[in-house]
Amino acid sequence: MSDDDITPSQISAVNLQRAQRYIDSGQDNLLPILKYPRRVISVNFPIEMDDGSVEVFRGYRVLHNRTLGPGKGGIRFHPEVDLDEVSALAMLMTWKCALLEIPFGGAKGGVVCDPKSLSQGELRRITRRFISELGDDLGPYTDIPSPDLYTDEQTMAWVYDTYDVMHQGNNNRAVVTGKPLLLGGSPGRREATARGCVSVTEYFIHRGLIPALSELRGSRVAIQGFGNVGEVAAQLFSECGAIIVALSDSQGGIADGEGIDLAEASAFKKTTGTLVGLAHTETITNSDLLEIDCDVLIPAALGRQITADNAGSIKAKVIVEAANGPVTPAADRILAERGIWLLPDILVNAGGVTVSYFEWLQNLDNETWQLDEVNARLHQRMRASAEATIARWQYLQCDLSGNEDAEYPLDLRTAALTLAVDRLAQITAQRGIWP
Ligand code: NAD
């Protein structure tokens, strides 16, 4: 079975279809609403490059659903951004917010570009022009962007500034999250996604759900991707006593069974732009990293990394989906049949949107919370959602009515998704279909 050509939207559709088998059939007529994005915006805009030439860039913003509140979701800059992927990622955001009980809907955006070949000035002009093209389709109560692949605090500062210039006289800070601290960013936002990953992983281990893994201390962790999420995850897992045995970035990976020195890895990446070549480590490929002998495997880079082709070779006891959509449905099945636990993206990486929500609340009140308070609230929400997912999984295991059609053992992705979809369907029914 190969799933090389499956698109992100097809993955979302397969996952939703699988969850549907376990969802109360009384809600069937509401499910079609969730299948399609509510609003799709596609823009093409010219940018004057540093050498005086003019290039046209394409950007997308998709609002999947706003039943729970304004749209919320990252903006990514990447050559492979396309409408299919942005739509699938917007849908994931809808599930994530519903699962975490955050009053936002799902959205996502992206610009097709290669940020590595662009200067800061070009990136600034692309960001400003993209945001101005979106106009009033963004707003603190409409749709609120945040950072994602190859966008960061600086990008969010430009987003804020552009929107503020276009809407003078208001407190506009809540229009975007993941901003620099001085501009109304939240303490702990940069680390939030990785902190959430640690929180949920610890919780599953603590509940005794990962066979042969009784604690994080001493566990061997491999992480694909060394950006905002992957680098911080490496630091936080290491602070919990885990041994980081492999790391990678877009240029390749490094491994050391004794544990990689993270301070050295960060410093080396900063000076050379890659991890590859770090002293006292073995150079490996990104494919090697995924199949390395470890306890915890954390994909924290791109989507569709674990597929039917390599799922049978994964040696980890648990996969923690820090990235969005790193595992395909065919791989889900193989992993479930092999008894390898998968902690799904909509739960595991929801720390980012959770602290984005906290940032939004702080901005509306013109307040700044203390870091301890942010982290305590994050921890509480992540654990409550992990427990709710476990409870749903246990309930569905006992509820044989939906299992007749099950193709393979019930996984946590399906359990988490049914919880999110049930909540949305209930709220949609309470609000009623307009008019
Ligand atoms: P980032 O741009 O900061 O880092 C991306 C990392 O992935 C870089 O180290 C890059 O070198 C590496 N990479 C790129 N291509 C690769 C490849 N082919 N193989 C291996 N590594 C590769 O991005 P980020 O913010 O850390 O996001 C990473 C993932 O986490 C994405 O899937 C994103 O959607 C997801 N995510 C991010 C957040 C957040 O708060 N930033 C929240 C939820 C989910």
Give descriptors for this structure:
435 residues, alpha/beta, seven-stranded mixed β-sheet, five-stranded mixed β-sheet, 14 helices, 43% helix, 17% strand, globular, binds nicotinamide-adenine-dinucleotide
Note down, in words, how this protein is organized.
This protein has 435 residues and is an alpha/beta fold. It is built from 14 helices and 12 strands. It has helices spanning 8-20, 31-35, 83-100, 120-134, 153-166, 189-206, 228-239, 262-272, 286-290, 329-338, 345-348, 351-365, 371-398, 412-431; strands at 39-48, 54-65, 71-78, 105-112, 143-147, 220-224, 243-249, 252-255, 282-284, 296-299, 318-320, 341-343. The protein has a 7-stranded mixed sheet, with helices on both faces. The N and C termini lie far apart (46 Å). Bound molecules: nicotinamide-adenine-dinucleotide. The site of nicotinamide-adenine-dinucleotide has 24 residues, from helix 7 and strand 7.
